[in-house]
Amino acid sequence: MDSLEIDDNVSGFENLTMTRLITPDFQRSQTPRSAVVCLGLLCAVLLAGNIGQIVNYELKIRPVLADLNQVHRHTPQQAQHFLQNDTLNKEKDQLKTNLDALVTRLNNLTKEKDQLLTSYKTLAKEKEDLESVHLALTTERNEFKASVNNLTDEKDQLKESYNILKQTSDQLQMSYDALQADHNVLTESKDELQNNYATLQTEKDELQTRLSSVEAHRNQLRLLLSNYTALRREKDRLQRQFDYLNLRRDLLETSYSSLFKAKDRLQYDLTNTQRRNQQLQTSRDQLQKMVNEMEAKIRGMNCQMGWRKFGMSCYFTSGSKKNWTESRKACIAEGSDLVIINTGDEQAFVNSLLNSGENAWIGLTDSLTEGEWKWVDGTPVTTAYWQPGQPNNKFVEQDCGEIVQNSPVGDWNDDGCFADQKWICEK
Ligand SMILES: [Ca+2]
Ligand SMILES: [Ca+2]
Ligand SMILES: [Ca+2]
């Protein structure tokens, strides 16, 4: 099986990694530790050799050399004696030779140490590389293992499917055999039916003739049914119309009843209103009589000095000049206000209070809303006497009204409220 082959490969891979250079234990511990230990031992040996050579030099060679120098400097007889001693000279030469050899060896060992250090670094680098390779191979091995598990599962599922299909195939084979037997039986039956078919064909022709006559009869019935359906729909429509008219009749009866009650209420209200109207007419006549009496009394009264009487009002024309606001204050101080012109007769009278060409402030302003002229008591202007082209709000600041005496009736102009000019009061 494929899965077993993959497992064998994995085992082989594991054996290879366990027995070769890429074994994890070798990579992780043995190689670096062995190299370090060997290097340490080598360094210790070298150090011991050096120390031995130094000790040998200090203990043996240096005293001999010192003695030779001393003999040479202070005792010529002894020096001559020593110089003649060939043994000592040879020993000295031998020692010097040994010393040179030891120095040479020390240099060689130092070079070897450097080479070993270089080798150690190379090995450490290779170890890191091998660790990386090992990690990658371990990951790949885990992936292979997962793939093997998946393939094993798929194989089991395929086996199970194969068994089911096998059972189905056996069942189908059995069904096929049974159907084959049925087919043989049916073939025999078909032959019998073939004979019967010829007989039935003859009968069918007879029936076809009968069917034609029946279809003609059925078409007549369909026509009758269609007429019946149309009549039924018309009856339903008339029924709905009848119901709707009944509903309208009920609503109209309700409305008629309400209107009848409302008519009674209105009749009652009309009677009351007529009675109240009669009372109000009586009251109005009494009040009119009182007003006439009061007007007669007022007409009999005179205005104070300096004021002119017209109708039921008294008028004052100033001799000095002030702006519109100060002019109005002056009128209010006299218990009056700037004149309000209510009629054409009053317009003509006020105009007559001025000399020809004179002008004077009247109680007219549009300071609250531009273009909306009102009298000082808040009432709007109903009949106006503006000059042609006025009011023009010239220089966008003409909000106060004045009367200009330039005709028998005079007319109005809008002017800047700050202008000083005469004014006319009314009370
Ligand atoms: Ca007036
Ligand atoms: Ca204005
Ligand atoms: Ca103007």
Q: Helices, strands, pairings?
A:
Layout: H1 2-19, H2 24-74, H3 76-83, H4 86-299, E1 308-310, E2 313-317, H5 324-333, E3 337-338, H6 344-352, E4 359-365, E5 374-375, E6 400-404, E7 411-415, E8 422-426
Parallel strand pairs: 4-8
Antiparallel strand pairs: 1-2, 2-8, 3-8, 4-5, 4-6, 6-7
Helix pairs in contact: 1-4, 2-3, 2-4
Characterization of the model:
The chain has 427 residues and is an alpha+beta fold. It has helices at residues 2-19, 24-74, 76-83, 86-299, 324-333, 344-352; strands at 308-310, 313-317, 337-338, 359-365, 374-375, 400-404, 411-415, 422-426. Strands 1, 2, 3, 4, 5, 6, 7 and 8 form an eight-stranded mixed beta sheet that branches. Helix 1 (2-19) crosses helix 4 and helix 2 (24-74) crosses helix 3. Bound molecules: calcium ion (CA) (3 copies). One calcium ion is lined by residues 390-392, 394, 398, 413-415.
The unreliable regions are: 1-30
N-to-C SSE string, H for helix and E for strand: HHHHEEHEHEEEEE
Helix tally equals 6
Strand content: 5-15%
Instruction: Give the C-alpha Rg.
Output: 72 Å
List bound small molecules: calcium ion
Helix content: over 70%
Bulk shape: flat
Structural class: alpha+beta
- Main β-sheet: number of strands, strand sense, barrel status? 8 strands, mixed
Mean of all residue-level pLDDT scores? 83
- The separation of the N and C termini measures 130 Å
